[in-house]
């Protein structure tokens, strides 16, 4: 008996109240059936009357006729009405409290096969918008320590407030059952500090979930190898990417807004690799650039057998088998 009482008091308040309401209605249903078996032929009829009366609905389909039955009804209204009202108020308050805790990033994520985004910035905001516009939407968990509350328009994103290098935060994000993680650089920190923070987060995620596929953003070249050693499956150097974009805009004849162009192309998913034309083999990159710009193709990188680079020197000579990475439609 004592163990049952302990279990009862360890339950959440709204569950305890619900249990108390149920027991009270069953008790009064049994009492009214005992007092007036003709008016309440079954115990269930008595329980039905108790719920209707205790909630102050009062359908009138069952009515006590004796003095004892009426006194029982009065006691039920005084006890049950207040208890049911208190239960509903507690349930409403609990729902509001849970919603507030969810928006503040204090509720653990229970889903699986989700995508974890680390860091709230313009890049993750745009990435979330693009993911949510897909036909088959991903389950997204955002980890960030700077945001105080999740925006209402991103209600489909589960927010976890905290540092991704902390085990407790990764537990709340259910990182052990995640499919993929994207770690972005913190624009508010210096480049070296930002890269070190990203590497710490890679190590923490890999330690928590060794098979997790991680995409990491690094700002400096010298930290790229450290990010790979830490366990990043894909390392993106955003500074190289933006430098390449500025370089191409510098040599365009028609003025264009580079950031808007980049965003439009990414949203439309015009991201391709293409083997260079045979006629361009052995020619300097500046010549290849001019040839592709005629078709409106924006070259951002070069892939060869050894590596992928976004540092494109105008005097680089292209070799057979090199592949150009660019943002545009494929050439016909």
Q: Key terms for this structure?
A:
332 residues; disordered C terminus; elongated; Alpha-Beta Plaits; Rossmann fold; four-stranded antiparallel beta sheet; 3 domains; six-stranded parallel beta sheet; alpha/beta; Helix Hairpins
Q: Tell me the CATH topology of the largest domain.
A: Rossmann fold
Strand order of the largest sheet: 3-2-1-4-5-6
**Averaging pLDDT over every residue, what do you get?**
78
Return residue spans where pLDDT drops below 50 for at least 5 consecutive residues. 265-270, 328-332
How much helical structure, as a percent, in the residues? 40-55%
**Strand tally:** 10
Number of contiguous helices:
11
- CATH top level of the largest domain is Alpha Beta
Which structural category fits the helices and strands?
alpha/beta
User: How would the global form be characterised?
Assistant: elongated
- Per CATH, which architecture of the largest domain? 3-Layer(aba) Sandwich
The termini sit apart by: 81 Å
Q: Count the domains.
A: 3
Question: What is the rounded Rg?
Answer: 32 Å
Instruction: Give the percentage of residues in beta strands.
Output: 5-15%
Tell me the series of helices and strands, N- to C-terminal: HHHHEHEEHEHEHEHHEHEEE
Largest sheet: 6 strands, parallel
Say which CATH homologous superfamily of the largest domain is assigned. Answer: NAD(P)-binding Rossmann-like Domain
